[in-house]
Specification:
By secondary structure, the chain is mainly beta. The protein has no helices and six strands. The chain has one domain. Helices cover 0% and strands 52% of the residues. Strands 1, 2, 3, 4, 5 and 6 form a six-stranded antiparallel sheet that branches.
Length: 87
């Protein structure tokens, strides 16, 4: 089971509210047999401009692997949902 919740941020200067779907956060090595305890972010995060709901940003987080040195890696795309293309 994963935790899923949404956060809302209102920018008064632009009179815009954004809805942010949080990515999955997990904690590893609670009993440190191999290495120390660390947290990991994975899955995707979606940011929607509620003033113009077709404007969205999707950010994909890459989980840290057992045998890789890659960590804290992410890639994102901003697009207009109705057209399916980048603005």
């Amino acid at each position: 089971m994963y935790q899923k919740f949404k956060t809302y941020i209102h920018l008064t200067e632009f009179d815009e509210t954004y809805e942010i779907s949080s990515p999955v956060v997990s904690i590893h090595n609670l009993v440190p047999i191999m290495g120390s305890m660390y947290n990991d972010i994975g899955d995707k995060m979606l940011v929607i401009n509620l003033k113009n709901p077709d404007e969205r940003c999707e950010i994909n987080f890459t989980r840290r692997g057992w045998f890789t040195s890659e960590k804290n890696k992410l890639a994102g795309t901003a697009f207009r949902f109705k057209e399916g293309k980048k603005p």
